[in-house]
């Protein structure tokens, strides 16, 4: 980036080229994840227009400001001059970057199972950062490069109020409040030690679990439960397909394949917003055997299960096995993905049900799958 910036001082088209190259290099750390996500959707989903529109929006957002200033240079004079206000903006964005850094660190923590940033720890950090940012905007905290704040302007006050409100909104989450609007960002609720909200689901599911597993031949989940445990909402989920099929044969229930991931934001939103609906939760608990397959789980496969797929890649981890199964069986690499099959692995629906927070639609889909399973048994 520094070398490209040095060459941008040259005149002519070459200087313009290196100026643009410098912008690309510097901004790639921010635009890279967005572009990567959009390109992954092209191969992972059947929706082709969404990635195209996403790339168009991203490129337009980056290009329009520079184009406007190039066509109308006088607009540059109307921009506010740098000063104390700009330093305040940088400090506030610094707090925002710290909060986002915790989010990305949380994803790594979840994948590797370190338990350094469980939900309550994550919430405490975000609450403290929110309070500090609000106090800074009110002038209660001052850093070395800040100018004296003689009074608090109206915009500054409203920003402080918004940040304080956000911090207060997070506080009930320390006792297990679902915080549904943030469920895709926060660590999953099953990482929290003290969770009053999960407790009600576990108490409510105790009787149902007892009745559904009263057949002593039904084995509880065993494989990979040393790391994958505490399923959401008190549900019983298996993490190995063969183990789930064995349980489904005994219970005479259809199988719901839940392709998910530790760092899958939409998976957490579906669980918090759709699965938690009382009617949906009852159907999942009583009518289906759930097999949750984590695409980013790095647990090593037993040596006897290690294999080489059609592309010649050696499959050594559970996550690799799940991704290979999802892509080869369903032609998808997106999460969440909910597919339904019987105990002979015959599909009960051709619908590739992904992220859709419509509760009624999900209930109808469950009913349709259950009805087809019942009709095939006759």
Automatic annotation (TrEMBL):
It comes from the Bacteria. InterPro entries: Cyt_c_assmbl_TM_dom, Thioredoxin-like_sf. Residues 3-107 form the Cytochrome C biogenesis protein transmembrane domain. It is a multi-pass membrane protein. One of its GO terms (cellular component) is membrane. One of its GO terms (molecular function) is protein-disulfide reductase activity. The keyword Transmembrane helix applies. The keyword RNA-binding does not apply. It is found in: Membrane. GO terms for biological process: cell redox homeostasis; cytochrome complex assembly. Keywords: Cytochrome c-type biogenesis, Membrane, Transmembrane, Transmembrane helix. The chain crosses the membrane at residues 12-40, 52-72, 121-138, 158-177. PANTHER family: THIOL:DISULFIDE INTERCHANGE PROTEIN DSBD. This is Disulfide bond formation protein DsbD.
């Amino acid at each position: 980036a520094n070398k490209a910036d040095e060459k941008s001082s040259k005149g002519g088209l070459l200087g313009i080229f290196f100026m643009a190259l410098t912008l690309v290099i510097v901004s790639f750390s921010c635009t890279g994840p967005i572009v990567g996500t959009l390109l992954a959707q092209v191969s992972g989903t059947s929706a082709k227009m969404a990635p195209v529109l996403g790339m168009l929006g991203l490129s337009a957002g980056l290009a329009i400001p520079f184009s406007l200033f190039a066509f109308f240079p006088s607009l540059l004079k109307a921009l506010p001059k740098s000063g104390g206000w700009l330093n305040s903006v940088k400090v506030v964005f610094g707090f925002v970057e710290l909060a986002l850094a915790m989010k990305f660190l949380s994803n790594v923590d979840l994948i590797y199972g370190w338990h350094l940033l469980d939900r309550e720890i994550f919430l405490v950090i975000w609450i403290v950062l929110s309070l500090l940012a609000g106090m800074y905007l009110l002038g209660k905290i001052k850093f070395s490069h800040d100018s004296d704040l003689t009074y608090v302007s109206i915009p500054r006050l409203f920003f402080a109020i918004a940040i304080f409100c956000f911090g207060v909104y997070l506080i009930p989450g320390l006792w297990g409040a679902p915080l549904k609007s943030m469920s895709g960002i926060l660590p999953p609720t099953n990482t929290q030690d003290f969770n009053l909200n999960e407790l009600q689901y576990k108490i409510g599911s105790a009787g149902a679990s007892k009745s559904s597993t009263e057949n002593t031949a039904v084995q509880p989940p065993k494989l990979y439960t040393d790391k994958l445990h505490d399923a959401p909402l008190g549900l019983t989920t298996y993490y190995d397909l063969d183990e789930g099929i064995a349980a489904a044969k005994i219970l005479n229930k259809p199988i719901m394949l839940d392709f998910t991931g530790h760092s899958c934001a939409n998976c957490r939103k579906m669980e918090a917003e759709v699965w938690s609906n009382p009617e949906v939760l009852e159907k999942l608990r009583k009518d289906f055997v759930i097999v949750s397959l984590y695409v980013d789980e790095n647990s090593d496969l037993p040596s006897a299960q290690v294999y080489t797929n059609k592309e010649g890649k050696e499959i050594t981890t559970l996550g690799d096995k799940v991704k290979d199964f999802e892509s080869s069986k369903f032609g998808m690499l997106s999460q969440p993905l909910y597919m339904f099959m019987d105990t002979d692995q015959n599909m009960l629906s051709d619908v590739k049900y992904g992220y859709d927070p419509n509760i009624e639609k999900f209930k109808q889909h469950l009913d349709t799958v259950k009805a087809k399973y019942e009709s095939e048994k006759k």
